[in-house]
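Re: that backbone. Tokens:
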């Protein structure tokens, strides 16, 4: 029997993903665990492996096309099965074609009255219509009660409903073009385009154009004063959503320490003279963070509604700037790694982050983040927490400045570090102890290496 392959949830919180590339072709035999496709999410490109064995009968999304999580993306068949078996599995009439993610209803959406899922109901109705003889039926005018019931059955895909809410549109005012009149994403996007944005003489052509062509019709992107409107990328939307949620729902507080780093810089120079792996100041910072958590292990926690999550190892998310926005891959077990191992791991993650080749597991977990803007000359800043982490350390530039040493004025290289903390998980005194332990490790860098 034909098996439907659905868009996987490769990144927590994602509502849709796109096919970056297919690693198989129709007619190719695949086994369980064989790579099928590269799935692109808001922050990564993840290789998706087959969970079933069979022959690739049909792919439903072309590279670059997006689909909702759970929407069909391909069909596997057994030897001897045909297109008719694929159509039957998809609940389509033989002549119908799948053109993109919006043409397939969400398999989890059910009838508003509860009961048979919409997909299964559509499949059963199609099969019944094919099997039943064509018998003319008298036209029956629907009663007012029936009409009201029909109007109450408003089928909207999850992403279309979310998009309509973001744009302030009432789904009841939108005409659905999906199966059974279901409202899909392109319907909301079309409804959001002002009528004046499309010239009247072009309206008939736009109405009859394929969905892919209609998607290219966009409102004016340049205002009269020359300001250009650049559409948001999926990553930028994800960053905006997560940081807005963090700033509005997580109680932040901040502590700042000035760390003298002259010894650290001198030790780094000596290490780089003898080591085949060049280490950065940020690598020392990560090891100092791990040392602080070992000194104050009760701070290595994250908040959850069910209880406090206590982490057994120091897994640190490192902020990496990419062309599309900020990503935070996680370096695991930093406390057990050597300095060169940390440096190698960070370089690998940063390189793959910029190429959007990170795996889902590399973007999840951890309890703490480090964001370093010192290389840009920034003296000091306060970072927004990266949920569900309970802390993030903002690292500024190391600059010479006057300091008092043993009651006398001197000049030292000072690096300002600001700790942002989730007050639900970590109290002020505990955060202060952790920051003092971090400062101690930075100012005595040899302790980091032993």
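Recovered sequence:
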């Amino acid at each position: 029997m034909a098996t439907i392959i659905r868009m996987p949830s490769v990144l927590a919180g994602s509502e849709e993903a796109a096919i970056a590339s297919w690693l198989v072709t129709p007619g190719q035999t695949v086994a369980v665990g064989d790579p099928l496709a590269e799935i692109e999410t808001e922050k990564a490109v993840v290789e998706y492996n087959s969970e079933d064995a069979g022959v690739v009968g049909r792919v439903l999304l072309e590279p670059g096309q997006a689909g909702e999580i759970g929407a069909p993306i391909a069909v596997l068949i057994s030897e001897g099965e045909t297109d008719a078996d694929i159509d039957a599995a998809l609940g389509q009439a033989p002549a119908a074609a799948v053109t993109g993610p919006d043409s397939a209803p969400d398999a989890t959406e059910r009838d508003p009255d509860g009961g048979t899922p919409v997909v299964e109901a559509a499949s059963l109705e199609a099969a019944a219509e094919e099997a039943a003889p064509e018998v003319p039926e008298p036209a029956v005018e629907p009663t007012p009660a029936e009409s009201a019931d029909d109007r109450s059955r408003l089928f909207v895909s999850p992403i279309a409903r979310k998009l309509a809410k973001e744009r302030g549109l009432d789904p009841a005012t939108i005409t659905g073009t999906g199966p059974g009149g279901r409202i899909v994403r392109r319907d909301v996007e079309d409804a959001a385009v002002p009528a004046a944005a499309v010239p009247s003489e072009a309206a008939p052509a736009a109405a009859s154009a394929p969905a892919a062509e209609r998607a290219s019709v966009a409102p004016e992107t340049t205002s009269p004063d020359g300001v250009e409107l650049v559409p948001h990328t999926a990553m930028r939307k994800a960053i905006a959503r997560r940081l807005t949620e963090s700033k509005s729902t997580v109680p932040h507080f901040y502590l700042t320490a000035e760390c003298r780093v002259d010894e650290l810089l001198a030790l780094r120079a000596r290490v780089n003279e003898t080591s085949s792996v060049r280490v950065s100041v940020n690598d020392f910072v990560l090891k100092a963070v791990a040392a602080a958590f070992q000194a104050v292990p009760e701070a290595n926690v994250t908040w959850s509604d069910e209880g406090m999550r206590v982490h057994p190892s120091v897994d640190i998310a490192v902020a990496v700037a990419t062309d599309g926005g900020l990503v935070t891959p996680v370096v695991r077990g930093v406390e057990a790694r050597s300095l060169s191992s940390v440096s190698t791991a960070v370089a690998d993650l940063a390189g793959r982050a910029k190429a959007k080749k990170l795996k889902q597991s590399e973007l999840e977990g951890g309890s703490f983040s480090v964001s370093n803007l010192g290389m840009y000359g920034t003296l000091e800043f306060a970072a927004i927490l990266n949920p569900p982490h309970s802390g993030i350390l903002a690292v500024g530039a190391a600059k010479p400045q006057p300091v008092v040493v043993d009651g006398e004025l001197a000049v030292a290289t000072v690096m300002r570090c600001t700790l942002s903390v989730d007050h639900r998980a970590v109290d002020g005194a505990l955060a202060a102890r952790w920051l003092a332990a971090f400062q101690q490790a930075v100012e005595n860098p040899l302790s980091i290496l032993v």
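The longest helix spans residues 234-249. DSSP finds 13 helices and 18 strands in the chain.
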